Amino acid sequence: MAAIFATSLKGSPMFSKPTKISEQTPAPQPAVQTTPETPSPAPAVAKPADSRSSAPPSIISAELTLTGDLTSTGEIQIDGKVDGDISSRALTIGEKGTVTGSVSAESVRVCGNVTGEIKGKNVILTKTAEVHGDVVHESLTIEAGAFLDGNVRRAPSAAIGNSKVSVLKPPT
Question: Which stretches of the chain drop beneath a pLDDT of 70?
């Protein structure tokens, strides 16, 4: 039995003859070496397909009252009070939000109070919404419990885009 044990250990690396340092193969070198004069290129970062949706919304918080017009090419969320006209790509008026003025956006979601005209391609009045003014839309959703005191008119998006408040393009 001792002979079988010795034979099985004979070929193991534990009992093999160590090689000299000069006989070992050198460590692989990197394909490209960089020096301080030639920095390596930064890795490519994938951009989202729609860069507009990657930015966070601009928020008017509950403690803030703003007097004046708001214009944005992105998304605005109103949780405070705005006395003025609002124009943006997307607009959300929170449950505690109040707007006195006209509103124009591609997408409008009202959960709070609006006194003024609403123009949007897609308008949603949630169950907590209170609107005193006309709504011009291409698509309108009114949840049960929403309050609307005004006229509702369906219009193609081209007519909605020709409103008094229009979305401005960012400066180049």
Answer: 1-53, 157-172
CA atoms within 13 A on the CB side of 95: 2
Using DSSP, state whether 132 is helix, strand or coil: strand
Looking at residue 168, what is its pLDDT?
Answer: 42
Amino acid at 69: D
The separation between the first and the last C-alpha atoms of the chain, rounded to the nearest angstrom, is 86
Concatenated DSSP letters for 45-105? -PPPS-GGGGSPPEEE-TT-EEES-EE-SSEEEESSEEES-EEEEEEEE-TT-EEES-EEE
Model-level pTM? Answer: 0.63
Contacts of residue 34, defined as CB under 8 A and 6 or more positions apart, other chains included, come to: 40
Give the per-residue pLDDT at 20.
55
